[in-house]
Each structure stands twice: as structure tokens, then as C-alpha cells.
Amino acid sequence: MMTIQQPSVLTASLAVAKRHIRIYLRYPGWFLSQLVWPVLLPLNFIFAARALAGIDGSGLASFAELAGTTEYVSFLVIGTTFWMWFNWMLWGLGTSFRNEQLHGTLESNWLAPLPKLFMAIGAFIGEGLLGLAVVIMAMTSASLVYGIDLLGHLGLFALVVAVSTLSVYGFGIIFASVVLAAKEVNGFIFLARGLLTVLCGVSFPITVLPAGLQAVSRWIPMTHSIGAVRIIMAGGGLASIRSDLMFLLI
Description:
The protein is an all-alpha fold. It has helices at 9-26, 29-53, 60-67, 72-92, 96-103, 106-110, 117-146, 154-182, 186-199, 211-217, 221-233, 242-249. Helix 4 (72-92) runs antiparallel to helix 9 (186-199). The radius of gyration is 20 Å and the shape is elongated.
């Protein structure tokens, strides 16, 4: 009697990841948007910052006291870049199970004689690789347009992104499960990214938040990711971001 060898969970996961990537490569219009948005998105905050600083720039002293740097352009670009990464994860990994459901493939995949974890792992690998490409393209565009010295801090920057990946996409898998149960996605995404824009200090230091919200902010991994990169870009070394890295690893 011929026996059919079942694929491993890893093989099935890689097949799901390959499908995710092939779909994106089939419709490459998203590539151009990821080169343009990192340049356009920070402008809203940069123009507002210049206006709030006053004609003579006297408001920069208050910003420097709160943020520890006068380089508000780099401060804002870093925050918006990580926000874009998180936003990509919400729309990609966060909606992956719901998209499977809408496309009619969730049920057939669910019937596969494998632990259902392969669907989450495959989505994680596929969207994770695409998300890292988004971060690289975003920082490259921002570096060229806004003159941010990324190359001088590339090693530490890559380290922060690497240790942030599991927490960012771990949140995405949880979010995807909630979306699948509720059968609603847009409202959840807008709510999540709106709250995180405020709580993670995308465009301002979290020290301006009320004490209670600061406590909540410090329990969110993306707060530490953004904060660590800002410290690096301000000239800090590995020792100065050790506590953020430990939090992200845990």
C-alpha cells in the first residue's frame, strides 16, 4: 500500500510565506508607495513643529529639554518610519486570516492534516520579510531626502529592528486572531494605530503624556523600539539602549 508522506509544519509554513510574497510581487505598485510615503508622511509633523517653534525657533529649547535633542526632523522621521512598519503589519499580518476567509482558502487550509500553527508561522515569515523591506526602503528614502546619517549607526539600528520583530509581529498574530473572531478589520486597525500613535510617542516625547498614560506607554514594545533608535541617532551607544533591548527581548 502506498503511503502519502505528510509535509512538515515548516514546509507548509514556507509554502504560505511564499504565496504571500508572490502575491505582493505580482502587484508591485506597493513598492513605489513605500518609497514615497516615508518622504511625505513626516512633512505634516515637520511643518507643524516649525510653526510651533516660532519664527525665531525659541520653542526648540522646550523640545530639547523634553526630548534630549534639537534634531526634531530626525526625531519625527524615526517615529513615523516605525509607525509605517507597524501600520504595514496591521494591514498585512493583522488581516491575513481574514483575507484567507474572504478568499475562501481558510477552510481548505484548516483541513490540512497539520497543526494549524503553520498558517500563523507562514504569515509571520512572509509579512515579516516584506515588513523589513518596508523599513529598509523607508529609512533609505528618508535618509536621502532629510539627510539622516543612517550608515553611521547601521549596526545598532539593525539590532533594534531585529529584536523588535518578534514583538511587533507577535502583536500582529494576536490582532489577526481577534479580527478573525470579530469578522471586522478596518475599525480595529484604525483604533489600534490611532492609540499607538499617541501612546508610543511617534511625534512627541512620551514625557508630555499624563503619568498614567506614560506607564501604559512603557509597556508597549514599539515605544522602546522608537526610543532606542532615537537614542542611537542622537549619538548613543549600545550601553545607552541596553534597557530597551532587554525589554524587547523579554
